[in-house]
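Work through what follows:
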Amino acid sequence: MTDQFQVSAVSPAQWEAFIAAHPRAHVLQQWAWGDLKAAYGWQADRIAITDSQNQIVAAAQLLFRRLPFRLGTMAYLAMGPLVSSKLQVSSDRLEAVLWKAIDEAARKHHAAFLKWEPGIFSDLPYQPHMDISALSTQYSALPTGFKLSPQTVQPPNTVMISISGDEEAIMARMNQGTRRKIRQSLKNGITYREGSKADVNIFTSMMNTTGERNEFGVHEPAYYAKAYDLFVPQGDAALILAEHEGDPLAGIMVFAKGQTAWYLYGASSNVKRNLMGAYGVQWAAIQWAKAKGCTGYDMWGIPDADEATLEAQFESRSDGLWGVYGFKRGWGGAVVRSLGAWDKVYNPVIYAAYQLALKVRS
C-alpha cells in the first residue's frame, strides 16, 4: 500500500491505456481530443497523477482558450477527472494532490476561471443552488470553490441507449416507428459502409446541408478531417455512410472508448429522405459500437428539460436541440441528465465581465 502520489509526465500510450480501462472512460478525456481542440484555438494540458510504481492513478485533461482583450484564459475540464477505482487505500490524499495540480495548471495558463463538467449522470433535477456535495458519489475529497453554473459547454441532457443483448433485444427496446423505419432502410437497396479519408468531403457536404436545414452551426471541413485522422485509424471512431445508387444519403461519425460509444456528428442529405437512410446509418453505427464491445450508446444532446416537458413539446418545437429529440427518443434509451457545469473563479473581476458578455450576447 502507498499514498505517495505525484504529478508525472506520461506518454500518450500510457494516458490512453488508463482512460480506456476506466469505468467512466470518455472521448473528451482522450489524448487525441486534446490534439483536435489544440488545432482549433485551444491549448491542452494533461495532468497525470502516478503512484510509487509509476502507474497512473488519476488523470485530468484541461483545455484552455484565450479570453478577449488579453484577459487571460478560460480553463475547461470536461468529463473528468478520472480517478482509479482500484486503489487499496483511501483516495482522499490522491484527490487532494489532483485538485492542487489542476489549480496550479489553471494559474500557469492565467485562467480567470475553471469550468468543470464532470459528466456524472444523476437522478437529481437541475437546481440553481445545488451544492457541490451532489458530486460526493464520485469524489471523496470534494474540491472547494466551485459553484453551479447555468452556462454549459456540452449538452447536459442526453438519451443513453443500452446496446447489451443481441440485435433483436436492442430493437425490442425501441418504439415501433423506429423499428419500422430501420427495417425499411434495410430493404431499400441502400449500402452502408465505413468511409475512408476521401469520404470526409462527402460527409462534410452533408453536414453543411443538415446545418442549413436545421439551423445549427457546423465545423469547417478541415475539423472533421482532423477528427478522422486522430480517431479512425486508431479504431476509436468510424465514419459510416449510407448511399443509394451513387447518392450519399446520410453519415455518422461515431466514437467509442471503454464501454461507451458517442454519436457526436450526424448528417443527412436532402435527397431520397423517404428511404430512411438516416435510420439505417444510425443502426449501422450501433452495430459498429457493439462490435467494439460497448454496452452503452450516447445519443449526445437533447433539450435541457425534464422528460414530461420533452414528451409534451417535441412535436410542436424544432428550435435548438428540439429538432433532433423527436429522432433520438425513438431508439429505446433513457433520458439522463448530468450534474451540469461548475465554475471555480480565480479572477472575480474578469469572471464578472465574462458573465455580463454572455448576458449581452443572449
